Amino acid sequence: MTTDQLTAPTAAGTAAAPRPRPLRRVRAALGPSGTAAAVFLLLVLVLALAAPLLAPYDPNAQSLLDSYAAPSGAHLLGADGIGRDILSRLVFGSRTSLLGPALVVSISLLVGIPLALLAAWYGGAVDAVVARVFDLVYALPGLLLAVLAVALFGPGLTPAVAALSIAYVPFLARIVRAAARQQRTSPYVDALAVQGFGLVRITVRHILRNIAPVVLGQAAIAFGYALLDLASLSFLGLAVQAPTSDWGVMVSDTDALMKGHWLPVLAPGLLIVLCVLSLTVLGARISGDQPQPYLRRRRRKPAATEGAAR
Where exactly are the transmembrane stretches of this chain (predicted)? Predict the structure, then answer.
């Protein structure tokens, strides 16, 4: 039997091997921890979008007869001090708890990405000025800016989101700037410039596309930090105001703790911790801080095929 006869089945088997499905590729790239985090966050997002359909009661409906009711068939997680259903408030609270961080991250990206790309493209004095501005804003604590904004404009979600958006611009833009500077010195950028492509096309269609995993991963981590910051401000009564359903507002129910009822506070606090932890894990996996098993397997397959052919 010739060498060609030996290698032919191997080559045919390799060619006929089915390609991994997109869902399997995503699961392999994220790993078990990243997949679990993504599934949990997807469930929370579904709860927020379908809150009117999934919540068993009106989140603000009061019934003094059900004050601090224990978990039961009528109230799966019990009721708070004025008889409001805890599960319904958690479901509706996911809307405000996720809306604020989403606005913070979106505004920060819309402002920070263009500045970071301009600094990376032009370099020199432009890069130095933008970097100093980022350092100056980064040195100011986000919570302090939010407290100052609330002191000037009054308590509410809008002043807190505006202040945190400013504080989070350098948090996201510095990562984008560093990654874009590495891409700026790549040969393909010079080749595109020689072909006559402009600044916008190169930076948006090529540089930004290549650093998208880093941007998305950092945005996920920033989302978790913003969620925690806004929950802290709501806990202090500076952001979302009672009786609006919000996880931070629910955690501030110290009266329940003093009377020995821990579930009205523990349930929203646990959701905040799980969301922040899931966003951190997912952000790390997306940005590539950990090796991707799928890529490792794909690198080993050619070596194994070559060994079989020999």
Answer: 29-55, 98-121, 133-153, 159-176, 215-242, 262-288
